[in-house]
Amino acid sequence: MNHGTHHPPALRLAIAAMSASALLAGCGGGGHSHPAPAPEPPPVSLKDKCPTLKGGTLASGAVIVENAQVVAAQAPQPEYCVLTARFDNSTLRFEAKLPTEGWNGKLAWLGGGGFDGQFPKATDPQFSPSIFSERYATIGTNGGYDYGGPPDAGYFAAKFALDDAKLLDFTQQSEHKSLPPGKELISRFFGTAPSRSYFEGCSMGGHDALMQAQRFPEDFDGIVARAPAGNIMGLFVQFNRISKQVRTPANTLNAAKQTLLAQAVLAQCDAQDGLADGIISKPSACQFDASALRCPAGADTGDACLSDAQIATVNTITSSVATSDGKWTHPGYNFGLEDQAKGWGEYIWPVAALGGNSIQGMFSDGFVRSFITRDAAYNTLAWNADQWLPRMAEVGTMFSAADPDLSKLNARGAKLILWNGTNDTSVSARDTARYYDSVRSTLGAARTDETAELFLAPGVGHCYGGAGPDRVDLLQAVATWVEKGVPASAQDLQLRKLDAAGATTMARPMCKYPAHAHYKGSGDVNAAGSYECVN
Fold it and tell me: Dihedral, CA atoms, 186, 478, 217, 434, nearest 10 degrees?
């Protein structure tokens, strides 16, 4: 029997130890013994992590996280970590709302409205419900400054624009500057950057959406521009023109005359889409002439007719305007909903609480005094844009977002959805259609179809509301276009009108411009299937 291959137990243990030591040495262990690693600490929940971000600095210390707190779920909002951050030596701030559970890995940037001064709220009806249902992280800015009060005369005065730094932030920089630190904050919270970044805004938020598409096309993968006030300089010229007209009491229409006008317009134009339902589906085909309602000799002889001065007001509202150099223009507003609060009553008609001024007038007064003349006592009734063309050009260089050249957006494959209510009396649907047409002329039909689509919502006022169906999830639509290559026009989207309980009471197909929804002649008038999109 050969005993050379057998060792006593103690020797076998010593050999095994030597072999293990040699193995460790070959792996850099150096032959030294190592204590067992300490157990990993339990992961910190996002809810617990949230308040620890307060006081942190972002982007090389230029941005400070002011506040961080968990806000409990309140339908439709899930539980959020809400963080606010400010820029050093600046009044620009942004607010991030980051879901503590179920984040979809994506960012939805929210555009503000009006003269900003506060953070946008995703619960407002102009935003898409998928912000909540799909658990987006959201960010929005204050537009460059904090107003701190309700939209009153002080708000409309827009005195922030007297400060050049605040003016630059408001007109074009607030979102672009806030995006890098905003993404950094998302990365710190979730441990990863967003896989996709989208933008949705209405009105001034729609202006900012177009600013992103035109001047900062690398920022977002998809952009939703609702009622986009890109032609902001022309818009304020038109605001001033109309508000001067209606501030003379003899020129305006009382409630009875508004109804007279509205009914005459519907009698001529309502049934053009195959159904008389109070909604004009294709306003561009409504060539109404208010002189048909003229009082005898043009004098104001009662509520059954319009005086010459009142006809002039209707013509001012619905006609174009241009500065003498042709640089700043506006195409006017559509007929329809002349007697409705979510129609001409929303921005055009004078409001007693505003001293006989209109919302258009309040905004244009602030623009003229703070952006252009920089004179708080300036008489806006005497303002003539032609006398201020150099300053208009200076502000317009910062503020205008009407450049039709979207070639850089097209080159990187980003997508833009434009949307406007046809009876919006802030941002004219005519103006948005004109912009889209100019994009097609610039890029050509094929490249435009790769990049941008326009949808008009008949009977809808500013951002939402009105006689027509106004709700559609455009954030989901643009994300589907970006991520799956299916354009919004191929997604069978519907415009819906909802009751207080959220049930659909009316639906129409959402037709890609220039098509409009036409009733087929039979079927439920409130069902989308009873309509077809026709040119």
Answer: -140
What average pLDDT score do residues 513-518 get? 98
Q: Which helix (H) or strand (E) holds 167?
A: helix 164-168
pLDDT tens for each residue of 73-114: 999 999 999 999 999 999 999 999 999 999 999 999 999 999
Q: What are phi and psi of 505, to 5 degrees?
A: -105, -15
Q: Per-residue pLDDT tens for 473-500?
A: 999 999 999 999 999 999 999 999 999 9
User: Residue 90's CB: how many other CB atoms inside 10 A?
Assistant: 15
CA dihedral 369, 205, 528, 497 (to 10 degrees): -70
17-35 in b/e form (b: 16+ CB < 10 A) is: eeeeeeeeeeeeeeeeeee
User: What's the pLDDT tens digit per position in 236-274?
Assistant: 999 999 999 999 999 999 999 999 999 999 999 999 999
What distance in Å separates the CA atoms of residue 268 and residue 285, rounded to the nearest whole number?
A: 10
Q: What is the pLDDT of residues 354-363, one digit of tens each?
A: 999 999 999 9
Residue 491 CA: distances (Å) to CA of 322, 478, 524: 38, 10, 22
Handedness of CA 421, 423, 428, 433 (dihedral sign): positive
Task: Give CA–CA dist 78/58, Å, rounded.
Answer: 26
- Give ∠ CA 477-205-371 in degrees, rounded to 5: 160
Q: What is the pTM of this model?
A: 0.91
> Distance between CA atoms of 218 and 116, rounded to whole angstroms?
24
Residues in contact with 517: Cβ distance below 8 Å, sequence separation at least 6, in sequence order: 273, 281, 458, 508, 509, 511, 531, 532, 533
Cβ atoms 71, 160 nearer than 8 A: no
By the 8 A CB rule, do 54 and 62 touch?
no
Place of tokens 């506040």: 67
- Cα→Cα distances 200→177, 295, 318, 415, 436, Å: 17, 47, 29, 12, 18
Token duo for residue 287: 């060539």
Q: For residue 97, give every residue at least 6 positions away whose Cβ sits within 8 Å of its Cβ, in sequence order, or none.
A: 71, 80, 81, 82, 122, 137, 138, 139
Q: What residue spans of 232-299 are helical by DSSP H?
A: 232-246, 255-269
Nearest residue to 335 (alpha-carbon basis) of 318, 313, 359 = 318
List Cβ neighbours of 59 (8 Å cut-off, separation of 6 or more): 180, 181, 184
Position 149 confidence tier, pLDDT thresholds 50, 70, 90? confident
Burial grade of 361 (CB within 10 A; 0-12, 13-18, 19 or more): buried
